[in-house]
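tool_call: predict_structure(chain=1)
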Amino acid sequence: MQRLLSVLANQQPVHGEKALDDRLRADPIDPRPACCTGPGQQTEMQSDLMETPPSSPQSAADIGGVSNDTPGDSTTGAAPAAGEANAAMIAAAEAALADIAAIRQAVSEVIFGQEEVVERTLLAVLSGGHALLVGVPGLAKTKLVTTLGTVLGLDSNRIQFTPDLMPSDILGSEVMDQDDTGRRSFRFVSGPVFTQLLMADEINRASPRTQSALLQAMQEYHVTVAGQRHDLPQPFHVLATQNPLEQEGTYPLPEAQLDRFLLQVDVPYPEREAERRILLETTGGAEAVASPAITARRLTEIQALIRRMPVPDSVVNAILALVRSARPGHGNARTDATVAWGPGPRAGQAMMLCARARALYDGRLAPSIDDVRALAEPVLQHRMALTFAARAEGTGIRDVIASLAASEAL
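tool_result:
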């Protein structure tokens, strides 16, 4: 613990769990569970937790965020309580890291390569949101969603969207029942949306009416049929897929609907070695099958932990600078020349959640500006649009975002 407290000299305000100091962000935690260490070998974090707390009054007061000069008895009572809260938070983070390591291992046994795609998709789920997977056919998008459902212990369904699919086909409808006495009544039959992990395959093939029904359920977490409210299971996540090449017979999602997706995850072709492994391990007599790593209840606990993680003021300011610089008329010359409309506040909210999740995914207890830069593209690309002149010149939305993320203003 002494190592964790040694960086408290230069304090910085944080936003999140008050008891946890944001300086812990610089201390990566060994993501291996305790069972993975040999006899007499403990992770560095576990060793720190077992040390005797520092006896210095100043360190103890700093842990609780209370100065030694504060009058009254609040200092003596707040410091031990804050220290216990710190220890509890660190212990919860260590347990979450072990679970995340188990998730990554279980997914890697079925999905070969595509580490960035797996990471970003998991970040969306760990943040409690939805993701839009964009890629050409045959890149294991469906297999990834199916694997995540098994590994995360979630009930999952798949909807193959078509132009003739109606809202009642996905939400459910009322049917008339008749009992033995001849009495008739209506009974609600739930649709495939009543699940914990829903794969919306080729969502842009559905009509706008059906798309709106699904996206409203994504936002409200309930559906209303015949005036009756029906809550969706918790947790509830939608991983939608979209083919960027084929546009005939499709209904592109409106900008307001795209904004409901926490991240847009672009799925590229696999690397050579990953594709070689795909050829060898998926064409034999036996194929790898995913196994559960956590439960749905444990997933909700990790999601709650991520929301409690502190965010330094420097990271909050970087998020604000990035999001606001992507809007025309806010002082960025390139944005004014190339961007027709930029992201709203929901982009900043998505960045705050995903930056926390990425920090924990990498074994840190608070996000950094590097997390903001790394997440700029998946958070912003579906929340912005280029002008006609910029598109005519061959400018891409990713080029604009990359220049904004590389700005020294962050």
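agent: Residues 74-108 form the longest helix (35 residues). Proceeding to next step.
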